[in-house]
Structures are given as C-alpha cells and as structure tokens.
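pasting for ref. prot 1 ->
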Amino acid sequence: MHVRSQPIVRLHLWLETEKGVFFGLGRLQLLKDIQAGQSLKGAAEHLGMSYRAAWGKIKKTEEVMGVRLIEKRRGNRQGYQLTEAGQLLAASFEQWFQDVEAYALKRARALFPCEPKAFKDPPAT
C-alpha cells in the first residue's frame, strides 16, 4: 500500500528594522530557555551558537526595543532571568506566531487538495 506524505505548514516570521532582524524564533527560544532556568551559555549551546552570538542578539533586541530583556539573577552571579519586558515580548511574539500559523493552516486546508498539518502536530498513524 502506498502511503502519501502529509504536507506540513512551516512559517518563518521575524521582526526587523533597516539594520536587520531584531526578533524572531531563535531569540524567542533563547528567552524561553533562560526563563526555564538555563544559563545564557546553556541556551546558546542548545541553539548551536556561541555565548557571544547569543549575547549580541539579546543586546540588539534590547537596543531596538529600548528595554532590558534579561537581568542578573539575585544571588547567582552567572545566571540571568527575564525582565518583565522580556517575558511580555516572548509571550507576545509566541502568541502572534501561533495566531499567524493557525490562520495559515486553516487557509492551506481550504485552498489545497490535501490535508496539511501544523509543524508540531504528531505524525498521522
């Protein structure tokens, strides 16, 4: 029996200025990893980047937004935590991405003669 593969809707959304990207899925994941208790170094390694690259991305976003996204944890000289602005940015971007993804999936299912699935949906059995 021939099993057809099910198409997957994948999106890459980001925010940028004339100087380039200042927030997208990679920076969201950095913030989420920090929020989950990983160090900035651990979050960077999880994403396959250097500490310096991760720090630079966070700093660029902070410059564009005009707010700090991370701050040193109290009582822990090496760790960071998200500021209130960092938490809000992460939550807002994640909600925006989910909204756009849901709309894209709905439209793909309406327009194409197949049954696309979301990127994170479990495989059909």
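and prot 2 ->
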Amino acid sequence: MIALATCSYFPDGDVDDALLAAALPEAEFAVWDDPSVDWAAYDLVVIRSTWDYQERRDEFLAWVHSVPRIINPPEIVEWNTDKRYLGELGWAGIRVVHTEYLAPGEAFAAPAGEYVVKPSVSAGSRHTARFGPGEEARAAALVAQIHAGGRTAMVQPYLSAIDESGETALLYFDGVYSHAIHKGPLLRPGAEPTSEVFAPETIEPRDPPADERALADAIAARFSDLAYVRIDIARGPDGPELLELELTEPSLFFTQGPGAAGRFAAAIRSRLA
C-alpha cells in the first residue's frame, strides 16, 4: 500500500492529485500530522500536498525522518524546505534570482526598484508581497512579521518580465522531462499577502523556450535520482533565472500534462522494489 501524504486542509488531496489517485489506485491519502496513522504500515509514502508545515517546519521534518520509506528522501526535504538553498545553487554556478537573506534581528534596507519580500520557509505565496519605491514601511512590517515567527526573510528583485510572460514550471520524473506549464503573475502591486492556503494561480500548458529548458535540464541533471523535481523559472534582464526548485510538496500540474499522472505513478511504483 502507498500513502499520499497531504494536510488537513485537503484530506483527500487537492484537485490536481485526483488524476494521480486514478493512475495509482493502490494509493490512499493520509494527513501527515494525524497521530492515528501508522506510517510504518505503508510500503511507501509520497509527500504531496502537505501545505501547512511552513510555520512548524521542525515538527514536519521530525515526521519526515520518522517515516521508514518516504519520497523524496528526508535529507532532500530538509535541504529544500528552506529557500536558502538558492544561495548554494548560485555558488554552484546555477543562474538564480538575486536574493538577500535577513535573519531575525538583521535590519531591512529597501533595494532600488520593485522587489519581493517572503520567508525562506514558505509555500503558496503566503507571507509574500511585492513592493515598490515609497513602500519601505509596509515592506519592513512584513519583514518584522516574518522575523517574529523565527524565520529568515528573503528580499529579491521583482522580475518585470513576469508581468508580460509569467513564469515557467518544468516537471521531471525520474530525471526525465515530463511537461511544463505557464503560470501567470501572482503578486500585484500594493496587494497584501494571501490569507489562503495558497494564492490563486492562472495555469496553462506551455512549450518552454529553449533557453529555459536548457537551464531546467542542467538543474534537473543534478537531481536525476529523485522521483519528482519541479523547476520554476522566470526571465531576468540577462536571460532565464531560477526562482524556486521544488523537491518537497509541489503541485505537479497533471491536468496540464497529458499522461503525466501515469508517468509519475510509474516513477512511484519503480521504487516499491
């Protein structure tokens, strides 16, 4: 038996995972922090929509490390659930969006132009907002809120090309490219962070430009042993840049990728041996 780990907001998985459930009938959904679940009884646990861990990451990681058989692996999940990994990838030669990190107690100084503030441990665009010149007080208040929760704040330039061409998310299963989607702009000028589990998204299938595919392929090659990898890219002033590398609980957009749920199901089954 296979468990698809989810959260109490989506006890039967999210809308996208309905296709996975159909392609993997031997699986069932289970809420990750439900004390009645015997995780050792499953042959494999697959992390899916566990989107409520961000403000209690330590508890979530303790659970991940306690599960006997889980994908993606615990050490990957621990590394990937703090977006300071972007700095490591940048040092390794990957083109990533420029990011400043402010640990609790460190002062905020607004950069020039438009910028984004968000926590280094986050999902669904929660506690994330876009700012421009003259909004320093509002941005500083968000930094203070992030710090009050014990988290590091990230400050990134807002890539203006997102307003025109959006973002591209590229999906890989077992190191093999599956499909890609186009995501419309999420952050509006002057808007407060979403109060929902995740911000509403406009999603469409996409044939990624060659340079975005090349960047994603280079990143995916570093994680080719993982069952699933999602790579979020936007265009910067000098070409595509990595926004996020999703290795923990990403939406995999099965609806926008014909046959993708079956390909992912095959990647899961291959690990049962």
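Residues 136-148 form the longest helix (13 residues).
The chain has three domains: 2-80, 85-95+160-251, 100-157.
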